[in-house]
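Narrative of activities, Objective 1.

The group set out to show that a structural description can be obtained from nothing but a protein's sequence at a throughput compatible with the screening campaign. Below is one input-output pair from the validation batch, recorded exactly as produced.
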Amino acid sequence: MGRPNSRAMTTWATVALLALAIPSFAQASKPSEDRPKRVVLVSILDRKLAVLEDGNVLATFPVAVGAAASPSPAGEFQVVNRVANPTYYRPGTVIPRGKDNPVGTRWVGLSQKGYGIHGTNAPRSIGHAASHGCIRLRNRNMEKLFSMLRVGDVVQIHGERDDEVAQAFGEFEEVADATVGHGTGQ
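Output recorded for this entry:
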């Protein structure tokens, strides 16, 4: 037998490198088992979101919630997907990532189809009942929240004020809702 040619050796080397790289990539993309599941607590009345771990508040953010005609759903959900720089799809409309995208720079999908937590191209809507039911954050806050969450984390959206909401956000401050232009945002 003769000496193997360089093309065959390069092919085998490439296959060997891919075989080693793929398992480590797949492990890195799995949800982290190193930390407890986090709970995202959303208060529709307070128009705030808190991230909890073991009952401790890690971060809070102001949010926009669903408008009266399209309220945010109350209940317990799970994070089912996370998308950086999402494309916005609506029947007849596709908006690629960028400054005009109504879901901003990050999307966290919930177990209730069609609902999520996302950024916005309408930052003035934050603090108001202005979305089509999703929970909106300013893009910089959404990027921070996105880094804190994993698929499987729990999202609790509260339509009423209760002890858990009061403990996370403190005293209730009435939020006067000004009319906000909906634009194309969610």
